[in-house]
Amino acid sequence: MVEAVVQDLKYAARGLARNPGLSATMILTLALGIGATTAIFSVVYGVLLRALPYPEPNRLAAIWEVNRRGTYSRLADPNFDDFRDQNHTFQAMAKYRSGTLTVTGTAEPTRTGVAFVTHDFFNVLRVDPVMGRSFTVEDAHPRAAPVLLASYGYWKEYLASTRDLSTVKLRIRDRLYSVVGILPEQFVGFPANADLWVSSELDRESTSRTSHNYLGVGRLRQGPSMTQANTDLAAIAAGIVRQSPEQSDYLMRSAAVVPLQTALTGQVRSPLYVLLGAVGLLLFVACANVANLLLAQASKRAQELALRNALGAGRGRLIRQFITETMLLSGVGGATGILIAVAVLRILLALTPPDLPRVAEVTVSWPALIFTAAVSCLAAVGLGILTALRATSGAPRATLVDGRGGTGTERSQRVGRVIVSAQLAITLAMLTGAGLLGRSLLRVLSVDPGFRTDHVVAMDLQLPEPGDLKPDAVITFRAHQSQLVSGLVERLQAIPGMQQVAAVNAVPMDGGLPDGMFLVVSPQDNPRDFKAFGLLAKQTERRGSADFCAASPKYFQALGIPLVRGRFFDERDGFNAPHVAVISESLARSRWARQDPIGQTIQFGNMDGDLHLLTIVGVAADTHEYGLEQPPRPTVYVNLMQRPRSTFSVVMHTEADANQATAAARAIVRDEAPDTAPRFRTFTQIYSASLGSRRFNLTLVVVFALTALLLAVAGVYGVVSFGVAQRTREIGVRVALGARRVDVLSLILRQGMATTLFGVAIGVAGSFATARTIQALLFEVAPTDPLTFGVVAASLTVVAGLACYIPARRATQVDPMVALRNDR
Description:
By secondary structure, the chain is of the alpha+beta class. The protein is built from 23 helices and 23 strands.
């Protein structure tokens, strides 16, 4: 048996060597399909399928509150405490939040990802430091000495791989932290982009059940399922809702428990599976192309197969030979495909949007190689059986008597035409999907963001801030902050070419703004403390909800946000002046539809701890803070000079070169706040990043669809060309009997276009089904958009028609004398 297989392999290798051009074409076609599929599978496996790199990851769960709209939200401190203390299904539970903060204590100040976690965080993940220790209960109270753990990469890059951690101190905000542990090198940062982990329990917890600041993670006990844990926490949440005095829209309605892996990857699951489906269709088109080439080659080998059959080789023996040949072909194609997959994966990782989770774990791993081997084997067996059954279905004796390698009959070409029709149908479905995604992107780009995106530079800053201030020191410190920000803005405004400069707590399209509940109150009813605020909040007619944005004067002018009514902030609104607010147009419509909002007074102190009454002085046009695909949200703008903060961004509208403005701003910040590490971005970069996921999906689908189109057109051309070659004698006879060139052209085109139109018809029907799978990725475009369907179908028909025309044109050049003489 082994000798027979070796003989088959040698024979197959000689056969491939006899036709190097054809063999190379088939190998590269398979390699292209297998390589692209392997690359996308590697992404899908690394992001969605690969288990989280923690012990028993199936027991890890994300914990959420469920709000009145039925959507998930972060956890309020007292709600988390009740979940942790009252549950019966979790072994351990922790909360966390993260951000990019200025860290000093190294050679230069850095902007570093810092996670604030409770002391059980690494116990939940079951991750132990490779050096030093983890957090303990002793680290979990406000009077504890500040300590932190660092990632292995941070330790090597910024701490010089020091072994004596007792000498390392890092300052974050107002605290000096001792580094007590280094996490393992293989530990993938969680939460994403974090390099330092500090205890959140050094700060006093909020007592509000409507202030949602933390994410939750827990490890289930042995035995309980996710469903049981969900029921457990939902019951606790129901008790909280019944007993809480904070009855508002921001009080949770229930709780939710979902697998941690699902929580981390939920938003990208559907797009990645769409891409995997698209590349799977591309692989099918590639295999169909190879199948057509193999069928054409088998037709030319009809004499050889008939002779081998006459010498005693049964049909089973011939089928085994064909499968051996395709196994060798697919094996070489698969090996080449792995090389292509590595190259394609590098390109994919360079193109991936920054919000793609677990991207650091994506590689051509063993599961991907096994997947490649399985795909190659399936392709080999499928191609081998199809080719063998078709090639051995004729009458060997008739072939020997006929004396030609192929008869050119309709039956011998029918399979090829069916395959081409399938190729065209799949290609049409892929092109339709690409067209729908392309139209969606155009619709998104047509949305006015509501603010200027060109010639604007954003500078993110975090200034030093003391810890717990006594009440009488808070006002003094805030006045100092206001003066510091005002002075910084004035110096930046003096940079040559600078138009307007302003400070804001968060720039648009960069994660969004905090939101909360405000109260409509009169000056007489303004609460003096938060207990009085809570009592007023029980009066539903006073309540409203909006995003909270702190912006300095000139913010609206810097971003080109139009004024609808009233005025913007100006020099009248100093730190000691009555506090004022500007509201968005959508908030004016929803809350004061039949009133003039100018002069109305509101209380929004629950967002920043400042209970100064806000008087509305202006209405600004809406902006798309959360991206072009999200509708504008009601927003309250407060004056950052009256309600300053230590962490903010500076927006600079400049007519000068962005690099020059950045260099000048960096020098000013180094002079004003030497311990601050600024981060610079242009608004063009921020705007482009908000479209990253959509562009990534569209780019890949378009590339796959155009590749499928190229292969399908090549298939049409190959089938029609092969048909012309097989019918050379027939064409010669027709011409000899008086057929005109236009008659021959019409004959070949009719048959080629019949195959094309059949494939297009099937493709249109199939596209209606496949378009539904990408409906969630569309924006203001129906999955049955007639314009897209019509343009794609017509374009494919025209391109396939051109592929038919070239060999048909060549058929009109057949010399009947030469054709008949060569047929003897």
